[in-house]
Amino acid sequence: MTAPGPTHLDSARGWVTASGSALSVMAAFGTIYSFNAFAKSMAEEFGTGHGPISLVFGITVFLFFGSAVISGRLYDRFGIAPLLIVGGTMFCGGLFAMSQVSVLWHGYVLFGVGLGFGGGLFNAPLFALTAMWFARHRAVAQGLVATGSGLGTMLFAPLAQWLLEIHGWRGGMKILTVIAAGIFATALLMIKRPPKMEMGDAKRHLSLVVRSAPFWQMAAAGVFFTVAVIGSLGSVVTFAQDDGLPARAAVALFTIIGFSSIVGRMALTSLARPLGSVRLLKIAFFGLPVAYALWLVTTRVGGLEAKFVLLIIFASILGVSYGGFVALLGDVTAHLFGLAGLGAVMGMLFFSSGTGALIGPPLMGFTADATGGIGLPILISGVISAVGVVVLLPMTRHPVPLPTYVGPPGAQPLPVPVPLEAAPPRPLVPQPSAAGGSNGELAPRMIRPAADALAAAQSLPRATALRHAPPEVFWPVADETISPNGQS
After folding, report:
1. What class is the 12-392 domain?
2. Best CA proximity match to 72, nearest among 348, 333, 343, 352
3. What's the distance, CA 156 to chain centroid?
4. At how many degrees (to 10) do helices 35-46 and 247-270 cross?
5. Residue 182: pLDDT band by 50, 70, 90 thresholds?
6. Rounded Cα distance, 352 and 241, in Å
7. Separation between Cα atoms, residue 160 and residue 155, nearest integer Å
8. Cα(114)–Cα(282) distance, rounded to whole angstroms?
9. CA–CA separation, 103 vs 45, rounded Å?
10. What value, to the nearest 5°, has the Cα angle with vertex 223 and ends 347 and 28?
11. Alpha-carbon torsion, ordered 247, 251, 256, 261, to 10 deg
12. How far apart are CA 417 and CA 455, in angstroms?
């Protein structure tokens, strides 16, 4: 008889938490990306070019992602509520203070630290939190949270443009402060940390993860991804205006990116079970160089109508690729490395992305200022995204073999059972992964006595132990086997 697993997994409470997480992500990303609607007016007031203004955006996004290396560990220790309270307060305080600045460099500190570091305190932990609430539907739930950034991009960009036209950029930021504060307060009431489960020694698990090749492939790909994507998100509105489009049409491109990113998130995560989340992550990344090639072509088109149509196609491809990659990242991380210390692992990956975010916007802005055109920075972004594809393509689709440590510091890793020599191997088939997700990647089965020993060693029901077991304890044997969900 199969022992019962944790009742919170895939529960209604988990979906409420995922929805609250999506709201927080929506407010954070939407507010930060609304900076692009204000950028041209700010540049005119402060008498500066693309480069210095784009640096405000770059610093903010760098701290937003980079602070995850701290926030992931804080989440593993304290939970999500303190991070959302402190981070949300910093976020709203920094946005209001930005509306009062008289010199641009103050914005580097107030907007960067307030929105960047403040938002970063809860952004990555919200994805880790959602992963802990789900097993079978983890990819879809992660996609729901990631959809928040697409909604924020789609809704806040036109809202910011409307506020700019009526109240100016300073008044617009004050109003956005009130809106963001209300959303964070609502989300705090919806979000709850799941019951604690034994995942092993998170610190030692993290040290093993960062030594693995797939971790560094994901980290490097994240740098190339954010250099290209965040650089273009920080420049697409101003570049489109420089290319002859009116302000509202330029902001509409940002809205299209947001909408198509939602489509990409939901479509690709819904396909994660049958096709595999790692495979889809690579496909999403491959769309980026295609999008930039099309964007480069638009700079050579003369008519505004034809140019706008091509830019809409570019924005749609960019949004689907960007949204799909972000939505799948959490599920791929859990699949490859397991749930132990997931907040810290994702924090490290978000930090690498933050490094790229610091490079991308100023690279595009200062290059445009130096060359007097937008063609070269677009070309550079396309090349960088293509390099990222090359880095990510060889990455394995299988869970990374990592020992699981259970018990006090100094405990030895759980023994890895040896498959019966007399048992003939059989082909592996797609089924729930050993890391606990149902994402269509290949996962073998496990000898029944070894499963019982694993459960006893962790003082957990067998189904629970298997759902979070390391991949190396599963073997492709023919007899007396059970799958990671505890079924014979």
Report:
1. mainly alpha
2. 343
3. 19
4. 150
5. very high
6. 31
7. 9
8. 33
9. 10
10. 55
11. 160
12. 13
Place of tokens 């088109």: 301
Query: For residues 216-237, b (16+ Cβ closer than 10 Å) or e, as one string?
Result: ebbbbbbbbbbbbbbbbbbbbb
Q: What is the pLDDT of residue 16?
A: 92
Least confident range of 52-66, 282-296, 308-322? 52-66
What type of residue is 284?
A
Lookup: tokens for 147: 């959809």
Question: Looking at residue 415, what DSSP letter applies?
Answer: P
Beta strands per DSSP E along 148-290 = none
Distances (CA, A) of 285 to 189, 224, 231, 323, 368: 35, 10, 15, 10, 25
Residues of the chain with CATH 1.20.1250.20: 12-392
Mean pLDDT of 165-193: 93
The pairing of beta strand 446-447 with beta strand 481-482: antiparallel
CA angle 330, 334, 336 (to 5 degrees): 115
pLDDT, one tens digit per residue, over 393-440 is: 999 888 887 655 444 444 444 443 333 333 333 333 334 443 444 444
Kindly report the number of other CB atoms within 10 A of residue 4's CB atom.
11
Distance CA 298, CA 305 (A): 11
CA distance 320 to 53: 27
The letter for the amino acid at 219 is A
pTM (2 decimals)? 0.68
**What distance in Å separates the CA atoms of residue 303 and residue 307, rounded to the nearest whole number?**
6
Taking the C-alpha atoms of residue 280 and residue 230, their distance in angstroms, rounded to an integer, is 21
Helix or strand or coil: residue 442? strand
Q: Rg of the chain over CA atoms, in angstroms? A: 23
401 close to 395: Cβ distance less than 8 angstroms: no
Q: What is the pLDDT of residue 465?
A: 53
Instruction: Find where tokens 């903010």 sit.
Output: 60
Count of residues making up the chain: 488
CA-to-CA distance for 319 and 62, rounded, in angstroms?
Answer: 20
Provide the token pair at 211. Answer: 């030594």
- The burial class, CB within 10 Å (0-12 / 13-18 / 19+), for 333 is buried
pLDDT, residue 411, reads 45
Which tokens go with 155? 């809704």
Residue 442's beta-bridge partner residues?
430
Contacts of 413 (CB under 8 A, 6+ apart): 403, 404, 405
